[in-house]
Design a protein that fits this description.
Order of helices and strands: EEEEHHHEHEEEHHEEEEEEHHHHEHEE
Number of strands: 17
Helix content: 25-40%
Oligomer: single chain
Distance between the termini: 40 Å
Largest sheet: 9 strands, mixed
Number of domains: 2
Length: about 350
C-alpha cells in the first residue's frame, strides 16, 4: 500500500476583486519638486531627467544648468517650455484644483510645489498587500476588543499581543493571512490637491496647508453593478499560523474566510463613512461624501468588504483611537480639491 505524502500545511486561496470608491494615496516616501513635472492640456507629466538631458540641444543644456544654479522659478517655466512627450516617464489626468494651485503658486519662490508620488513597481501603480492587510488587522483587533474600552496607557503593542494571544512576533497568528499586491493601471491615476479641514463651532474651515498628491481614483461614471474599475486581488490563509496549537482567536477567519473578514471590516469601517458625511455636510464636500456613504451602504448589503487605507484616511481609520476610553475626537479631516474623502475601497469575492 502506497501512502500519499501529507501536505506541509492546509492553505485556502481566496480570489477577490478590488474597487476604488474614493481617491487613495499610498506613498513611496518621495516627492517631486515643481520643476520635475509639468501639466500640458490638462495632463500631468512626470519628467524623466535622464531622457531630457540625453536629448536636449547644447544651448538648452547650458540654460538648464544656469537656471538650476540660480533661478528656481525660471527653471519651472523653462521645463514647461521645452517639454516634449519623449521626456515623460508617466502621465495622468490633472484636476482643475491641482492646475489652479500650481499655476497660482508657480512664481512663488517660497513654494516648492511638492507632489507626493504614488508607490509603483516597473512604472505601474499598485496597492501593497501589506497596506490592505494592515487595514484588516486594525478591524480584526477592534472585533477582538468587543465591548472593552482600552486606555492609551495599555500600549498598542502590548494590546495587540494580548488580543491575538502571542508573546513573540514570530508567533503572531496574523502571519497566517497573506495578501497579494493589487496591480492598478495608470488609467485610474489622477493628481489633485488635498485640503485639510478643521471643524469649529460655526462650521468647517480649510487649513492653510498646501498638499498635492498622485492618487488612485475611481473610474467614473461606474458601469454595471460595480462602482468603478475592478482589479484582481488574492488572499491566502494558512491554518498552521492562524490557529496555532488549537488556538481559537482566529478560528472564524479560517473557517469562514472572506465572509468573516467582510463582517469584521464592515463593522469597523462602515460607521466612519457616516462620520465623514456628517463632517462634510458642514462644508463644501457634502454631496460627494454623501454619495460615497450610500455606495458603502450598498456594498455592505451586497456582501462586499469595505475598508479604508492610505494617507489622509484619518486617525480613526488607521488605529483603534475611537474605541479608546475617553477617546479624543479628531477635529480635522482631509478631502481632495474636488471634494472626495480619501481612502475608501471595497473588496468582493470573485
Amino acid at each position: 500500500m502506497s501512502l500519499s505524502p501529507k501536505p506541509l500545511m492546509d492553505i485556502k486561496v481566496v480570489a477577490c476583486t478590488v474597487e476604488i470608491l474614493s481617491p487613495v494615496h499610498i506613498g513611496d516616501r518621495s516627492t517631486l519638486e515643481g520643476y520635475e513635472y509639468c501639466v500640458v492640456d490638462g495632463i500631468y507629466h512626470k519628467i524623466n531627467m535622464s531622457r531630457l538631458l540625453e536629448n536636449l540641444p547644447p544651448d538648452d543644456l547650458d540654460n538648464l544648468a544656469n537656471l538650476m544654479a540660480t533661478d528656481p522659478i525660471g527653471l519651472r517655466k523653462f521645463m514647461r517650455e521645452i517639454y516634449r512627450p519623449e521626456f515623460g516617464e508617466y502621465s495622468c489626468r490633472a484636476t482643475r484644483t491641482f492646475i489652479e494651485t500650481v499655476e497660482g503658486k508657480l512664481d512663488d519662490p517660497r513654494n516648492q510645489l511638492l507632489v507626493r508620488t504614488f508607490i509603483k513597481t516597473c512604472g505601474q501603480p499598485y496597492l501593497p498587500g501589506s497596506s490592505i492587510k494592515g487595514a484588516i488587522r486594525t478591524a480584526v483587533l477592534a472585533n477582538l476588543l468587543g465591548e472593552r474600552c482600552p486606555s492609551v496607557r495599555d500600549g498598542a503593542e502590548k494590546l495587540e499581543r494580548e488580543l491575538l494571544g502571542y508573546s513573540l512576533p514570530t508567533h503572531d497568528p496574523m502571519k497566517g493571512l497573506r495578501v497579494a499586491d493589487v496591480h492598478l493601471s495608470m488609467d485610474c491615476m489622477v493628481v489633485d490637491s488635498v485640503q485639510r479641514w478643521s471643524s469649529g463651532a460655526t462650521g468647517v474651515t480649510p487649513l492653510r496647508l498646501q498638499q498635492l498628491a498622485e492618487l488612485a481614483s475611481p473610474v467614473w461614471p461606474p458601469s454595471g453593478a460595480g462602482f468603478g474599475q475592478a482589479f484582481q486581488a488574492e488572499f491566502r490563509l494558512y491554518e498552521k499560523f492562524l490557529v496555532p496549537r488549537g488556538s481559537s482567536v482566529l478560528r472564524d477567519l479560517w473557517d469562514e474566510g472572506f465572509q468573516w473578514l467582510a463582517k469584521v471590516c464592515n463593522d469597523f469601517y462602515a460607521p466612519l463613512a457616516k462620520s465623514d458625511e456628517k463632517f462634510a455636510a458642514r462644508g463644501d464636500a457634502g454631496a460627494i461624501t454623501s454619495k460615497i456613504a450610500r455606495q458603502i451602504e450598498q456594498a455592505v448589503r451586497d456582501g462586499g468588504c469595505v475598508m479604508r487605507l492610505g494617507w489622509g484616511s484619518g486617525l480613526d481609520s488607521v488605529s483603534l483611537n475611537r474605541l479608546l476610553r475617553k477617546a479624543p475626537t479628531p477635529r480635522t479631516k482631509s478631502f481632495t480639491g474636488e471634494g472626495w474623502p480619501l481612502g475608501w475601497i471595497v473588496l468582493r469575492q470573485a
